[in-house]
Amino acid sequence: MKDLLFLLADLWMIFAGFYFGWQFIRRYGNYLLGLEWMIVATSGSNFLLWALLSGDEGSFLYNVAYFFDAFSRSVGITLILVMGLMAVTHRYKPTVAVDVGVFALATGAGLYLQQFRGHQLHVGPATFYVVVNVLTTLFLAYFSWRLWKIGAKRLAVGAGLATAVASAIAITYDFFPIPGDDEHRTIFYTAALATWGFQMCVYFFAYRALHHHNAATGATPVGPEGVRA
To answer: Which of 32, 63, 122, 189 has CA 20 to 30 A from 42's CA?
Structure first.
């Protein structure tokens, strides 16, 4: 049952990442969020393949999994997420150079932080992950407040809940192993994958609500191909 729940959680995250990532690009031309969502989904696909084939921490797939993990925890679901959401909170539209640059930064961070993989706690990188998550959480609290302000109260609560649970996952990740979990941390990863999938889903609908509100009030131009919502 535990393995089945892990499989379902990973499949859910993979679906959420690819589907909503493509929607971000197709509907709103938001490549920051669209590509990051798809990178998370690709990470989940690789993680699933690794778990099904071997679960060996010495395998190439494990190295790839750790790279994707470091990529998103350092810059992807932190800086890139904030910059992407600023399209509807601050009408921010980055240049192509900025898009490329921030993904290059995330790639560099992922490659550098990959050296700290393994079960041993590395306080420096682990603390860095928590700090950038806290800073991102502050912005996401503001994002939820903006939703509440326009009357999208259910989405505001959903986004706030997703953010709170994801923050708890981020702190638990390195510092507080779940008692009774197995050596592969199946319980933790099941909760984490389900949470990350929920995040990507609810942030998309929250983004859509703010985009629609901005378009209706004339605060933002009509998106690609005339799509407003």
So the answer is: 122
Residue for token pair 């590395």: 122
Number of domains in the chain: 1
Under 8 Å between Cβ of 22 and 36: no
The residue range of the domain holding 22 is 2-220
Question: Is residue 226 situated within a structural domain?
Answer: no
Q: Which residues, at least 6 apart from 65, have a Cβ–Cβ distance to it below 8 Å?
A: 43, 46, 47, 50
Q: Which residue has the higher pLDDT, 52 or 169?
A: 169
Residues 43, 33: Cα–Cα separation, whole Å: 15
If you write DSSP's letter for every residue of 90-122 in order, what string do you get?
Answer: S-----HHHHHHHHHHHHHHHHHHGGG-SSS--
pTM over 0.85: yes
In a domain, 131, yes or no: yes
What band does 190 get if pLDDT is binned at 50, 70 and 90?
very high
The CA radius of gyration of the chain, in Å to the nearest whole number, is 18
